[in-house]
UniProtKB/TrEMBL annotation:
Annotated segments matching region Disordered: 370-396
Protein origin, superkingdom: Eukaryota
Residue span(s) of domain DUF1618: 116-253
Protein's name according to its UniProt entry: DUF1618 domain-containing protein
Origin species: Panicum virgatum
Length: 396
């Protein structure tokens, strides 16, 4: 995981960047970018982390940098850091497409490539290990691109976009999910017209038809389903997108107020529902959407140590046994919005674990285990670093 922490002195704002190993809870500060470099690392959701295929156990961090101009309509370089060499480098792009003014909605490491997401238009992608990477553009499915001519990044309905659109990896493929039938005008958000959730799969990023339509479910059908009624979820209220199950692309997670529920989109069935407040420090419901939660595969260590007044050896420590199956670990990232001053930004990191059992219905009381403020025992074998790129927003 690539992360950043802001420190501020009188009139000075400094950003320190860290590489965090989720397997053992350690973090290493990255060295500063050399002052004579033509480009510098900048805050924003445009930093990606990817495993180095030529050097097992090592990784590359890469940030896409725009060409000079009043709007970000083209990129010309990658700023890279390699854990193998411990050095920063700048790679000039061999080619890059022109595009609409680009926003930053995170970076995905997938299929040996990095994918920079603008949820309004599509993805830019390249192989960051090439000496001169070739940047390519894959647009969103037909009819899904947003037209915001004349709007700057500060005028984008960024929060609404993150609540209703996402791209995630599931079962080895990239999936685009969108809640349709909703307005992106803040003054008209409470008047949906036949809202529905739809999913596409990326099958040929450089072909004429890059996306394959998968499924769609109207919220009228979802609200009427007996499983939705039994879960006690509100009628007529469209939820926010959270994530796609990494082991079953038919299952999409939503936030409905303080509840997190899993929905099989094809059958309209709610598989699980439980209270889940992403920001457990300030308990702010504003963080209940996809920007602050992510998922990846990880093998858990066999035991988790927690503080307890009772223990078998009288030491005050208890050990909770975990089954050795694979889990989908969710990373909840809470951060404040409404200011570009990173000295005022609170970044909250919590850990939530969901066991993926896509063919059964479960209560989330059986599926969810909170791991806040617990020390984890060292795993039996090293786990790989996972990237959640772009920890701070570059727009409110």
């Amino acid at each position: 995981m690539a992360s950043q922490i802001a420190t501020q002195g009188p009139g000075v704002l400094d950003l320190d960047y860290f590489l965090f190993d989720v397997s053992d809870g350690t973090a290493a500060r990255l060295p500063a970018v050399p002052a004579d470099f033509p480009t510098m690392i900048s805050p924003g959701r445009s930093i990606g982390l990817i495993a180095d295929p030529r050097r097992p156990g090592h990784y590359m961090l890469a940030q896409l940098h725009p060409a000079a101009g009043p709007a970000i309509r083209r990129h010309d370089a990658l700023l890279c850091y390699s854990t193998a060499t411990g050095q920063w480098s700048v790679k000039q792009l061999a080619s890059a497409p022109d595009h609409e003014p680009w926003g930053a909605h995170g970076v995905i490491a997938h299929d040996g490539l990095l994918w920079w997401v603008d949820i309004a238009y599509g993805m830019l992608f390249c192989d960051p290990f090439d000496d001169h990477p070739r940047l390519r553009l894959v647009p969103l499915p037909n009819g899904c691109e947003m037209h915001m001519h004349g709007l700057g990044n500060s005028d984008r309905p960024t929060v609404l976009m993150d609540q209703r659109r996402l791209i995630r990896s599931s079962q080895g493929m990239l999936r685009y999910v969108e809640i349709q039938g909703l307005s992106y005008d803040h003054a008209d958000v409470d008047n949906p017209i036949n809202p529905a959730v739809s999913m596409w799969t990326l099958v040929d990023p450089e072909g004429r038809h890059p996306w394959r339509f998968e499924c769609e479910a109207s919220f009228a059908d979802i609200w009427a389903h007996d499983s939705y009624v039994a879960a006690g979820l509100p009628q007529g209220k469209v939820p926010n997108l959270a994530l796609v199950d990494p082991n079953n692309h038919n299952v999409v997670y939503f936030f409905q107020d303080t509840a997190l529920f899993a929905l099989d989109v094809r059958t309209r069935r709610v598989l699980a529902c439980e209270e889940c407040l992403g920001d457990r420090v300030f308990q702010d419901p504003l963080f209940q959407y996809s920007r602050f939660i992510d998922a990846w595969e990880q093998v858990l260590p066999p035991t988790v140590r927690g503080d307890s007044p009772a223990s078998s050896d009288g030491s005050g420590e208890s050990w909770t046994k975990w089954p050795p199956e694979h889990f989908a670990q969710l990373e909840e990232l809470g951060e404040t919005t409404g200011s570009d001053d990173f000295g005022e930004v609170a970044s909250l990191i919590c850990q939530l674990e969901i066991r993926s059992q896509p063919d059964k219905e479960h209560s989330l009381s059986d599926l969810l285990t909170m791991l806040a403020e617990e020390d984890m025992a060292p795993p039996a074998e090293p786990s790989s670093l996972e990237a959640e790129a772009g920890d701070q927003a570059d727009e409110p």
